[in-house]
Design goal:
heterodimer; A: about 200 residues; 8 helices; about 75% helix; B: six-stranded mixed β-sheet; 17 helices; 28 strands
Chain lengths: ~200, ~600
């Protein structure tokens, strides 16, 4: 019952493997393919056709859901190209080199804050410090988003221009690194949130 | 070719509809009534009554009458104990099963115990019968109805949907599709309006609340997000009002009988309906104003706003981005509801289509799509709740996220913990919380037939499939050997296939109101209608004006015929009832003519025909 090993989400929807997608176009394709495969249209069909319709529409819905979300789309493309992010474990264990400074500074700040809390400092004061500690991480995230956008545009141009496979690979490796960093940054921010609500 | 129908199996009322010459129509009884009260009653001789007749028995035989059974579908005794206290019928559960966290509820109907799907099946059978009678009357060679689309609240979980489908099977119906009520409503509405844009459907019924946000484009009705509360509806408002009345009279000491409670309930419902039209109404002898009602019920209605905001957030839309808001369900007639909905969405909501009938009409349209393969319209719905499995430490690992378009799949790979272990247990849940204990247990699956291997070697790939009905099925394959695994499903709050089969067979044994009893019921209904119409005329202000035109002795003849019929209607002599109904009709014919002329004159009063 394993479906569609030979195809991928992009080709199923008739789209090139690009990172910027026209949403209106995606919706149109999704609707058209839904009309083709949806079980509602196969109620009277023989069992094999009904099974096929169920598989295909499930696959279509997965494809649509994944490609509709920019982060999921990028992660999926990386997986397709053999550069999958491993489980969440790996992503958060090693500190990405680009973030070493920030992580170090944040950990120091958090240690100080915890010490102050233990010594009975005012909650408002502590919260203010946490919010300040957050600022560089937020800034990093924005910088990071800009980089992802830039790299994505370069990848799309590469796909359009039929460029050197080596170059393409370089871009993807860089994107993968950004994805790992993004995971890490999100975890850091989540950690700060937790401290704020304690 | 047997017919296919759409059915709205509601908490308070049920309806059946079909598509006739490209338009959906509700199938009505001889009095033009499309609603069948979702009430079932068992008389002492074992006859089962459904609908208006059953509703009447609430006042004479409350302990043998069941209503709002939809609130019990897919639930265990622990879920319903509180509510069951307020109900006149017996609600029990299997204690041993309940202790293990599960077990289906049982409801007492007369001398017997039934599960909620069986009681719902009585209602479905009545709808089936009504539809078949209609087709036969239309001269159809093959009036049999054995296929249907049945609607459920969008927020119904897997167990509740399966219970509904089981009810259909027990009633002898092939359930072609279970569809969500708001989505069905949007279909009926979309037919009417033929537009595109973002619609919010606010569905507030007798027992459940749903909010669905859809994009309608190019004939495709795509649900973006759905949310709701399957335990929030008009019944809760009724209970609040009843409590007020009972508290007031509680001072007298004696606890009311079940029938008296039902009388109060019906009075409370009448007051509630009156207050939708007027600023004050009589609540069992005490005046209640619209603003007093609003203050009392506001907390209940405000509970609907949280799910609305969550659905908007899940759809990634602000209230201002909704193009149209549609109201569905009888409870949306309450002015405070309309006011709060308009406030939340910043626009006046629509209710041009009858909020009681729109869901059944949509179900009929969907039934037609399924059977004719008409590809003009397509419903793309979503699963309302995340699906997950229990993992180490009592935590839920989500496999399929809520608001995923269905059909949807998700998978997980398991392995064994012990050498040569040949079976693995999987606990499947629905809900958004972290802990297993906070989510809804759906079922426990046992995967058998894993080839004996060292611990940790087998890779059992389990595929979860949510179909177009929103119902889960599971397949599993051991990847190393490629052997498909056998799966034994033990539903937490449902029936096994065997149980459903058995109930279907047993259903043939129940003496439903047979043909003769039906004729008696019809005769009584006709009689009551004529009695009501006559009394209304005699009480009307116009009567004084026309009394002079009656012949001598005519009024006393009317009075005599009226009294005669009233005394006959409670008895079982159908023929006598019909005779006396005819007699009253004859006695009032002249009066009716005279009153008609009078009201025509009043309507035309002073105008020329040429003015009109």
């Amino acid at each position: 019952m394993i479906t569609a090993r030979s195809k991928d989400y992009f080709s199923f929807l008739g789209l090139p493997r690009k990172l910027n997608i026209d949403m209106a176009d995606l919706e149109k394709r999704f609707r058209a393919l839904s009309r083709q495969f949806h079980p509602d249209y196969f109620v009277n069909a023989p069992a094999a056709e009904r099974r096929h319709s169920l598989e295909q529409s499930s696959y279509l819905n997965d494809a649509y859901r994944t490609l509709k979300n920019p982060a999921a789309r990028l992660e999926y493309l990386l997986g397709l190209e053999g550069l999958a992010l491993k489980g969440p474990q790996e992503a958060s264990q090693a500190v990405p080199p680009a973030l070493l400074e920030e992580v170090f500074a944040l950990n120091e700040e958090l240690d100080d804050i915890r010490a102050e809390r233990a010594a009975g400092a005012a909650v408002e004061q502590l919260k203010a410090r946490l919010v300040r500690a957050r600022a560089p991480i937020d800034a990093k995230r924005e910088e990071h988003e800009a980089q992802v956008a830039q790299l994505s545009a370069r990848w799309d141009a590469h796909v359009d221009g039929g460029g050197d496979p080596e170059q393409g690979r370089e871009i993807l490796v860089a994107l993968r690194e950004r994805m790992l960093e993004r995971s890490y940054i999100n975890n850091l921010l989540a950690g700060i949130e937790r401290e704020l609500t304690m | 070719m047997s017919k296919v129908v759409g059915i709205d199996l509601g908490t308070t009322n049920s309806l059946v509809a079909y598509v006739h010459e490209a338009k959906p129509v509700v199938i009505r009884d001889a009095n033009g009534d499309g609603l069948v009260p979702s009430v079932v009653s068992a008389s002492e001789d074992g006859t089962i009554y459904v609908g208006r007749e059953a509703q009447r028995r609430l006042l004479t035989d409350a302990g043998r009458t069941v209503y709002s059974v939809k609130r019990f579908m897919g639930k265990g005794i622990a879920d319903v104990t509180d509510e069951a206290r307020l109900l006149p019928f017996r609600v029990t559960g299997d204690a041993a099963q309940a202790a293990q966290g599960g077990g289906i509820v049982r409801i007492g109907l007369g001398e017997r115990e039934f599960t909620p799907p069986e009681i719902s099946a009585f209602i479905l059978r009545e709808l089936k019968r009504r539809a078949e009678a209609h087709f036969a009357a239309e001269g159809d060679i093959d009036p049999e109805v054995d296929r249907a689309v049945i609607t459920v609240p969008a927020y119904f979980n897997d167990a509740q949907r399966t219970a509904t489908r089981d009810a259909g099977r027990i009633a002898g119906l092939e359930v072609l599709r279970i569809i969500n009520e708001p989505t069905a409503a949007s279909l009926a509405y979309g037919l009417d309006k033929r537009h595109s844009g973002i619609i919010a459907v606010y569905d507030f019924g007798g027992g459940t609340f749903d909010i669905s946000i859809l994009r309608v484009e190019d004939g495709v009705f795509q649900v973006l997000a759905t949310n709701g509360d399957t335990h929030l509806g008009g019944d809760d408002i009724d209970q609040l009002l009843m409590k007020r009345v009972l508290d007031r009279s509680g001072a007298s000491g004696r606890a009311p009988s079940a029938e008296e409670v039902q009388e109060i309930r019906q009075a409370v419902i009448r007051a509630k309906l009156d207050l939708s039209e007027h600023d004050e109404a009589d609540l069992v002898g005490v005046k209640m104003t619209r603003s007093e009602l609003d203050a009392l019920i506001r907390p209940i209605i405000e509970r609907t706003l949280g799910p609305c905001r969550q659905a908007l957030a899940d759809a990634q839309l602000g209230p201002g981005e909704i193009d149209e808001v549609v109201l569905v369900g009888g409870s949306t007639r309450i002015p405070l509801v309309r006011h709060l909905v308009a406030e939340l969405f910043g626009r006046a909501p629509h209710s041009e289509l009858n909020p009681d009938e729109v869901v059944a009409l949509g179900a009929a349209v969907q039934a037609d799509i399924l059977v004719t393969g008409n590809r003009e319209m397509l419903l793309l719905d979503v699963t309302p709740l995340s699906l997950g499995i229990e993992t180490m430490g009592g935590v839920t690992s989500k496999i399929i996220m809520r608001n995923s378009t269905i059909p949807a799949t998700g998978s997980e790979t398991f392995t064994t913990g012990v050498d040569n272990q040949t079976a693995v247990d999987v606990h499947v849940l629905q809900g958004e919380r972290e802990l297993v204990a906070d989510n809804r247990s759906l079922a426990r699956f046992k995967l058998r037939g894993i080839p004996p291997m060292p611990a940790g070697m087998p890779r059992v790939h389990v595929q979860f499939q949510i179909d177009a009905n929103g119902i889960l099925s599971v397949t599993a394959t051991e990847l190393r050997t490629d052997i498909e695994q056998t799966i034994e499903v033990k539903p937490s709050y449902g029936l096994t296939d065997d149980e459903v089969e058995r109930m279907l067979l047993e259903s043939f044994e129940y003496a439903e109101a047979d043909f003769a009893a039906r004729l008696l019921i019809d005769a009584r209904n006709d009689a009551e209608n004529v009695i009501m119409a006559t009394e209304k005329s005699l009480r009307a202000p116009e009567y004084a004006e026309v009394a002079a035109e009656l012949k001598p002795g005519e009024r006393s003849q009317i009075d005599a015929a009226l009294a005669d019929l009233k005394s006959a209607v409670g008895l079982d002599d159908r023929e006598a009832i019909q005779r006396k109904t005819q007699a009253l009709n004859d006695a009032t014919r002249h009066l009716a003519e005279v009153m008609m002329n009078r009201s025509l004159q009043a309507a035309l009063g002073g105008r020329n025909v040429s003015d009109m």
